[in-house]
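dude i think i finally got it to work??
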Amino acid sequence: MNALEDVLYRYWGFNSFRPLQKEIIESVLNGRDTVALMPTGGGKSLCFQVPSLASDGICIVISPLVALMQDQVRGLEEKGIKAINLSGGISFNDLQMLLDNALYGNYKFIYLSPERLQQDIVQNYIRMMNVNLIAIDEAHCISQWGNDFRPAYKNIVLLRKLQPLTPFLALTATATPKVLEDTIRELKLELPQIFKQSFVRSNLAYKVQTEPDKIYCTSQLLKDNPGAAIVYVRNRKATIDIAEQLNVYGLRADFYHGGLSAEEKRSKLEAWQRGKINTIVATSAFGMGIDHPHVRYVIHLQLPESLESYFQEVGRAGRDGEYAEGILLYDKFDDKQVAYQFIANLPTTSDLKFIYRKLSSYLQIAYGEGQNIQYQFNFSDFVKKHKLNSILTYNALKGMDRLGILELSEQFTKKTILKFVGSSSELLRYFERDMRISVIGKSILRLYAGISELPLSVDLEFISSKTGQSVDDILSILKRMHEDGVIELQHVATDASITYLVPREDDRTISKIAAEFERLNKIKVKQVQAMIEYVHNTTTCRTVQLVNYFGEKYKTPCGICSVCTAKNKNKVKVNQQVLAEEILSVLKEKAVTSKELVTFLPFPETAILNTLKLLLDNELIRLTDNNELYISK
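look at this
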C-alpha cells in the first residue's frame, strides 16, 4: 500500500479510490493547477483532503456553503484531523485566535468563504502559512454564466499573490461547457489538467410519474422496498406532515429540515444511517456533505427549481453502484406552483431595497455599521412583523446572500441570557422553597461568576450535565424564577442567523448589485423553464436529457428510465388471456386496488386497466366500497 492508499485507509477505511480520484490527487501533488468536474457522489472532497494529509502544510478550502463547511470540519475533527471553519459571525479577537491556531497549531485544513478572504487580517495570515493546496469548491460560482454566480468569487485570484507557488484545485459538479471555460479563465488557472467524470449514472433510473395522490404512491413504492430512501419536499411543515402520513401507511419515516437543532439533526441522521428508520422526508437542506452510499430511492414530491438542483439531489441515490431509482412525482398543478414560487415571486430591485431597509431596522443596525457582526434572526417573526410576502422575502434574502451583501445561515439556535437580582440572603431564602430550584440556581451561580452583576449567556446543555436535570426542566425552573422576580431571563429561539458582509448603506448598498441581480433573475426563469421542459419531454431518454443539459454528448438510451421503459412496454404485445390470469392470481391472495395492480404487474397500465374492465363487465371480479378488487364467488 503506497502513501496515498495508506491515508485513504487510515482515515476513511477505503482500500481503493473511486474513478479519477487518484489521478486528480497525483496532479495536484505534482504542483499542477487542476479542474475536477465530478457529479454528486463522485467523492470530490477526498480529492483535496487526501493530498493535503499526505503533504506538509495546510490546505485552504474556499466554499460558499456554510453548512457544508461545518459538516466537513466536524467530520475531519471526528477522525482526529485538525481543521478550522472561518464562516461568518466571528469577532475580530476570535478570528485572530483561530488564525493563530491555524498558523502555529499544526492544522491541516482551513475552511473559509470567499467573503472572509477579503479581510486584511486573513490575507496577512495566509501569506505566512505553509499552504500545500488551495481547493475551490463550487468553483462554477465564479462564472457569470453559472446558476450560482457570486461576485466575491472573482476575488479568489488574490490567493495567487499570497501563495504564488501553490496549486489550485477547482471542483464543481454542475458546470456546463460555457461555465467551465469561464471558470478556468476567471481563476487564471495555468495550463490546468482537466478531469471530467461522465454524468452518466448507469445504475440510476430517472423516472417521472404523473400521480395525483403522491403520498399514497410514495407509500406503495417504499412499502415493499426496505432500503434507505429520501423524500424531498419544499418546506419545513411539509416534512413533518408527510412523514406522519407515511408512518400511518406503515413506513418507518422521520423528518429533517434546517430548523432543527444540531442535536436533533445528528440524532435523526444517525437513526437513518443505521437503518432504525428507512425514510427521511426532507427539504434540500438534507444531503449536503452526508455520506450514505446505500440510498435506493430519492423521491421528489414537488418540482425542484432547476435541473442543477434536481441532478444534485437525485444523485444521492445509488452511490454504491447498485440499482437505484430517482422518482419525480408530478401532477397537473406542479407547473403553476413552481412558476409561482420561483418566477412570480422573484423580487425586483425595488423589493430588494425595501426588504433590506426593513431588515436593517428589524436587526437594529445603524447606518454605516453592522459589518461582520452575526445577528440571530427569526424569519417568521420578521415576515409577520412587517407584513411581508414570505416567498418573495426569502428569495430576496437568498439573492443578497448570493451577491455578497449578507450571509444567511439557516441554522436553528437557542440563546439563554439571565441575570440574578436581589441580595445573597434573599436568594438563599428563596432556594429553600424547592430543592430543584436550589440545585439549579446554586449551580448557575458557581458556574457563571458575575451573573449577579451582568446579564450572561448560559449553556443549558452544560448546566444539565452538571446538575443531572433535563434541559426542559431547567428551562421550566428558570421561567418560574423569572416570574418570581429572582432572575431576569431572555430565552430566544431563532431559525437563522444573518451576518452583514458590508456596512448598512440602504439603497446605495443594493444599487451596487442591481444589474447583477436582474441578470440572475433572468437565469432563474430559464432554469425553471428547463425543469418544466424536462418533465414534459416523454420521448427522449431521461439520462440523455440530463447529461446533454450539462454539455456531455451522449445519445445511448439508458433502458431503465421512465421514458425507456414506457417505450419497451409499448413494443410488447400483451396477451390479454395471460394478463387476466395474472390479475386473478393476485386477487386470489388478497383484494387490491387498480393502482396496486399497476405497481405489482409488469404490464403496461393501459393493458391492465382494459383487462380489468373486461373482467368487471363479465362479473368475474367486483369492487368493494373502498375500490378494492376481489374475485366474484
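The first helix runs from residue 3 to 12.
im so relieved honestly
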